[in-house]
Write a structure and sequence with these properties.
The structure holds 2 protein chains of 2 kinds.
Chain A lengths: L18 H29 L2 H5 L13 H8 L11 H31 L5 H13 L2 H14 L6 H26 L2 H9 L4 H12 L1 H17 L2 H6 L7 H10 L7 H22 L1 H9 L5
Helix pairs in contact in A: 1-13, 3-13, 4-7, 4-10, 4-12, 5-7, 7-10, 10-13, 10-14, 12-13
Chain B lengths: L1 H11 L5 H32 L16 H7 L2 H32 L6 H13 L2 H11 L6 H7 L16 H26 L3 H9 L4 H12 L1 H17 L2 H6 L11 H9 L5 H28 L5
The chains are: A mainly alpha, B mainly alpha.
Chain lengths: 297, 305
Amino acid sequence: MEQIQLTGPHGPKPKKTTVSRLGVYAFLFSAAVFFCIPLYVMLITSLKGMPEIRLGELFSLPGDPSFAAWVKAWGEACSGVECNGIQTGFWNSVKITIPSVAISIILGSINGYALSFWRFKGSNLLFGLLLFGAFVPFQVVIFPLIIFLREVGLYGSLTGIILIHTIFGMPIMTLLFRNYFSSLPDELFKAARVDGANFWQIFFQIMMPLSIPVTVVAVILQTTGIWNDYLLGLIFAGRENLPMTVQLNNIVATTFGVREYNVNMAATILTALVPLAIYLLSGKYFVRGIAAGAVKG
Amino acid sequence: MEETMVTSAKVSKPRRTKRVQISSLLASAPMAIVAIGVFVVCVGYSVVLSFTKSRLFPNFNWVGLDQYERLWGTSRWIVSVENLFLYGVLFIALCLVSGFFMAVFLDQKVRFESGFRTLFLYPYAMSLVVTGLVWQWMMEPSLGLQNVVQRMGWESFEFAPLVDPQYAIYGVLIAAVWQSSGLVMALMLAGLRGIDGEIWKAARVDGIPTWKTYFFIVLPMMRPVMITSVVLLAVGVVRVYDLIVAQTGGGPGMSTEMPAKFVIDHITARGNVGLGMAAATMMLLPVLLVIGPWIYREYVRPTKH
């Protein structure tokens, strides 16, 4: 380390290949390999047949690649006594994710807008409580919420799990939109007020068109977050609506005779596909979403 | 609730018409309901239940601190807490160190920077269930990594942590660091890019070696980024549940049990709500003590804007 002469980020691009440059690339390539291995193993395992897997060549490419395991994982794999594959979980996750994302973003943007421009005494305290909710372990609120949803007849229903995702998404969504709206110039709001625009007019006609970039971040953050959720879906969705992650774990944990690693890995890839696609397509917006929770407005 | 909000609204913005005030209060109602109903009432209810003899359903047979006494006499809880500390400290430290190095090396005007970045961060987009299952497969004793290396000739090579109670927690740790260190990389890289170029010029003029500049000048300047990273990672640590369930199920034995799983198991399958809520309250305490004052100082007290 001492010998390596690193070039600062604002310096000129070095023309010649030096030992230190090689060191930099060696580090980055080995890190890249470490990060790639699980994805690679997951992919090739899913394309192999069970006899080939039993040879124990974890890293070797499939001799006769086939999507048979994918087909089985999608439509026939068993979780418990049911053998309908992971497709039911996929559609359940779609049914849970879309409304949850939409509702939590609508509420979060309204909250953020109200907290930025329509402060009332106690709004800071309210926001503080909500923020506390972003850090509180789910375990502390889950049981009372089970009781509450049971009382109102929503426990184990699609509406119930959507409500739960809306509740747990609210702190971060509110924070995201509050920070964004607080960064807008105050004059914008004041001018609209002088022109006589009311709460909703300012929100719909001025703030919403301006908040498209932050909404993209919010959609990415919430879609990946809710799609990847396991605990809340397991507890609140009910047996009819179990999300894909829960079903995936059930499929892998189901052991009738031989464990079919290729089917398990195919099901795992299928579950990871949606967030991965979002990640690859969204680029910088994904990174912004990560930082969003922590950036103070 | 409604009443106090109406009166207080008058105080802060006196020039507003009545109609507008009502719509702004109506708009804030869902927020108020969630903030108070869930994050105050529900949390309070959980804490109250921890002082009762509730089993499968809540009841209010007051037993004082009995559940806490029982909790700290339960070996599974003690093991869970020890695991959480070991896992949490190592997880945060490893993520910070590897994330920092990845960011620094990426900051050297390298080729394919965005390609590397994409590769380092993609695990963070995947769910912990997926992470747990992939690593469980790779750590499979007879078909996984261990087998491959042994076949290459290194017969004594051992890498099957998940079947060994002593090392299982490290198996989980590897998977978790793989999943989350890209997060720190992304935050740190953004932090590095935000550092004033003049600092680099000044350091170069003074002849300070680049690595020294990074460690003694740049790193201290990145304190806010580090705090952010630690907070985000710590929240993940306390909540760790999915990864354990998918990768080890808490085993072998109790070797990878965690407090979050203790609580869930006790309010569901084990039907011992009182004990589960005592455990949940213990999880809440550190969060309350660390996050509470910070939120109050940063967000509640100042009335800026």
